[in-house]
Structures
1.
Amino acid sequence: MSAIEVVAPNLKFRLSGVTSTIIQLVPVQARTIGIATLGPGLPDSLPRMRWWQLPSLLRRPKSGRKRIWHARRNTEMVAGLLLKRVFRAPLHLLFTSAAQRNHRPFTKWLIGRMEAVIATSARSGSFLEVPHEVVMHGVDLDLFHPPTAPDDDFAAAGLAGRFAVGCFGRIREQKGTDLFVDAMIELLPRFPDWTAVITGRVTPENRAFAQALEERVRAAGLADRIVFLGEVDDVKVWFRRMALYVAPSRNEGFGLTPLEAMASCTAVVASDAGAYAEMVVPGETGAVVPAGDGAALTAAIEAYLVDPSLAETHGRQALAHVRRRFPLAREAEGIARVYDRLWSGR
């Protein structure tokens, strides 16, 4: 712990986008700074501190600088304030905000107690009432990459059709899974070369929603061409198998899946929820439509089903775009600049 200068808490048991960010980002940060995670639901491969080591936060690391407590949730801001104000831990408090909405009064109060704030997009920053810096998420270009092996071809999946269009993530109304299903029910009868693939976890509160979607697909006679895979062991290979990826969220925090798709050389149709509109370049790497607009989503998808070569072209351009703008190392560098300003007192 004497070498740890940054703590990245993850005070949530269930896997979420924040957890995914920590899992991908911390190993990159650990190449240049002493950083450790704290909390449940994280792989053992990450540098971690244990709960019994919390008292060590009451002392400065060997560098003599205050440690940075990098919170990403309300619970983590509360924990940081308790450590600093009640237990007098020598900490700098930093919060990263991805929310695309006006914050509740308590959250605003917590954010106002932070010494620095990062917004993950210009849109999320527009909801902040404190000075902040925009550092957009990046994507691990080693994990998410173009097809390189026979198993990366859609044919290896053993499903019908020559081309695939995918929608990945938790199955729920917020994610717009129903909008994607409706679009597929309308389009696929006219495009027999295409198959739709849906992956993602169904939580108990969304089970009836998911079952209703599957029933609509069966009623349309498309059960072999709109395929629900549930949670898959490795979603990365499915990104590589897709010719087109669709992110139809009604609302979103940031949303990493379009970046993961583009890094896999896959074109993207996305709503303008979250930071999607700041990732996708319309007419170059994909298309952006108004969130919740099923007709616009269907029309944007149809353009690619009509012309699969367009999906191929936009996929190549998407890969170049992500490599230029969104490598994970660039996110780590942006965060490091904020750390340095905290340590220098600026």
2.
Amino acid sequence: MQSLLIVAGVVATGVLLLAGVLHLLPKLAGPGRAIASRCTRAPGLDLVIVLFQVAPIVYGAIFAGWLGVAGAVLGQLLGYSLWTIAHELSHLRARRGPRIVSTLNRILGGGIKGRIRNHVAVWATALALPCFLTIRAAQIIVYPVLVWLLDFPRYPNAEWIRVSRQKFDGLIGHDLIWCLYCDWMTGVYSLGAEMLRNVESFWCPIRFDSEKKCANCVRDFPDVDGGWVPAGAGMADVVRKLEEAYGDGRREWFAHPARLTVNGEPVTQSTESSAGTPGAS
């Protein structure tokens, strides 16, 4: 128990100190603001996530095994809770104004009932954090292998993996920390889906046998209705589709125009105007 409390105290202190540094950086001239800006997008944001979410768990495990892991989680919860209280107390005007949390508490029944339903549900979403960390790790470790071996298109990760809701006026404390979580994981999910489209269409351009599944998946995988061969077709049809889609050296999912690359770099308006028809990645 002593080890658990020690780890919890160290982690909570570390969380609060790191949060303090992030608050301080934008107030510093020149280099401070530049560092703060880099911390809001990949790869700087990846480092921030590791320091807040991964490093405490690793520290706890090394210090006291599973008991230390439990202490690290407790310390994270304590640190985030104390930061939330302090941040809301330092923004009393916004705290008294319209809030996401108070509105949802009311929508969910009001009083203690609404508050419990809302807070338990939002904390339950934290259980998905390891899943999103794993997806992000795959984007950093696995996808570059496909770029190297298969000439898959490269993506500027910072266009997806970034946060900006801290700039939204009146978003404080509880609302801010959860909106930043959503801000981050939405980008992770979207970039992961974009990469997976390339993988699925490249290796398996075959429609699912279930039309219901096709209808469910077509929003995230447009090639379901944009070129994959019917489930009842033959392998010769699959081969023809692969030759048609990738025989010219292009590797983006079925030449989706918003994801074309030139010499391995994402196409922009200026690239298109200077390079003409986008070429292979």
3.
Amino acid sequence: MTNNDLKRSANSDAVCGETAIGQILADFRAYLQRRQLAESTIHAYLSGAEQFLTLYPSINFNNLQLYKCYLLEHYKPQTVNLRIRAMNCLMESLHMTDSRMTMVHIQQKSFLENVISRADYEYLKRCLLRDGDHLYYFIIRIMATTGMRVSEVVQLRAEDVRRGYMDLYSKGNKSRRVYIPARTRKECLAWLRRIRRMSGFVFLNRRGDPLTPAGIRSQLRKFEGRYGLDASVLHPHSFRHLFAKNFIEICGDLSMLSDILGHENIETTRIYLHRSPSEQKQLVNRIVSW
């Protein structure tokens, strides 16, 4: 069954035989690429669609609702909504919008948790330098001093370091320029000269291939046991959050921070204005002396 066959049966069941699944996913990938979605988003959406197509023999309203129940039983709300977005996008590509699923409500917190402290960040840097792990020293240094996402930092090239900035492109051909602070740039350039890597990707594995976001996440988790750090803060976004919190405390320009981070909506950036309960407690204890 081809994509066109599925479109013609939009008002009834769309039956998915084994031979049809591969074609459906191939057509779906082409649809996502035409929409210029990020490759990471395409991968996530295809994974969700493939999961559904292997669990249920046909695409119809009842099976979609069963799938939603399955997701709620097995995954956290954020993952549930990601899979729902994937299936809704698949429905759009098949012109089956009447079968769209509703997202689950997630109670949004007004503050950030699991952000590495400045003290732990400095401690981790010292440990990495002491152990000669310059690769991960500069990975966390770049994320913490530029606010780059891990999917962006793996794209960093030696040419970008020499220029002192990196131009990043997102869906819809939107672009933003991320500047590398002078001190970070100087140290990184000195390291690149030592290892004779003055062109191409900066962060490579032992085989000489660019590191992947998954590889970086996995390695960061190992620092818990090695250096006695809290595992909950050893994730790539923790260093992006550290950059944002420090930036807003020193500069206070929310609009500029939103541009640097590449947020589509400034409301997303407002979370950095709020302090967690533990931060509020520490601040009150430090300020109140009467």
4.
Amino acid sequence: MTRAAADTPLAISMGDAAGIGPEIVVKAFLRGHAEACVVYGCPQVLARAARLLARADGCAPCVVAHIDTPAAWRTVPAGAIPVVRARGIDSELLAGIRYGLVDARAGAAAHASIVDAAQAALRGEVSGLVTAPIHKEALHAAGVDFPGHTELLQHLCGGAPVRMMLANEQLRTVLVTIHLSVRRALDAITEEAVLQTLRITHAASRAWGRQAARIAVAGLNPHAGEGGLFGDEEMRLIQPAIARARAEGILASGPYAPDTVFMRARNAEGHPGEFDVVVAMLHDHALIPVKYLGLDQGVNVTLGLPFVRTSPDHGTAFDIAGRGVADDASLCSAIAMARRLGA
């Protein structure tokens, strides 16, 4: 992607100022992986991250350029990072934030960055959104009532049903339930919820070039219920949803035992995957296998939004924030995935 080739820039929200988000955003620009991107957040926070990395490398910090609109990104000199200041952000307040600590000011700034970037995407001013990591406690401390990006973006886009997909080059998984306790998630697994997940996954598959994605559905219980011996959710809820999806032309199959279906779907050298994506009932069922394959390449994708949204497959890493050692590989993968999906 070059400046000449990009019609509309891709937005990156800066994440939590007390975490590694600003640092990995700067690194992505320095490594040339964020060409034709604009950052939504606070220019001073990005400049602090640039100075941090310059000290670590013993060189001059890169330039952070404040722009008023994303369309102005082309006016920024080569090598500079274009930043749109999110509304309501007070740079003086953010200057007092310490790395590695939960801070309501950082939560409020992260929220403002996401809101402004998402609204720009809805207006077509940016081609999509890549979100740097946020901290849920900081959001809560700032009075934000959403547990994460997915729920917040769903609200900003009018409440349309969305689903979370975690993906890398070997495996893609989509979740029926996301940020719920296991007890609440069990009640949220209904025939309609599974069917809606299959519909959203099928529709989104076209964005990555599969007109009829092979969708494997993981069961909820051990051995996918073993014919009702270990639970009947597969027979009562999941199988009927799969049957209805197939009647609509969706290439769904299962439910399969959740302890083996991810291995069957993994697409690796010498091991072509049997499926293009796995739909799983619970958060950890879906995320553990992808994260086990490596955090550096995992990308979180929100399916069902009116624009492309991706995110790194890790959190704010407060334990290493401010040290200049954070790895930007997952953010770079998220940028590349956003472009591959049409942003």
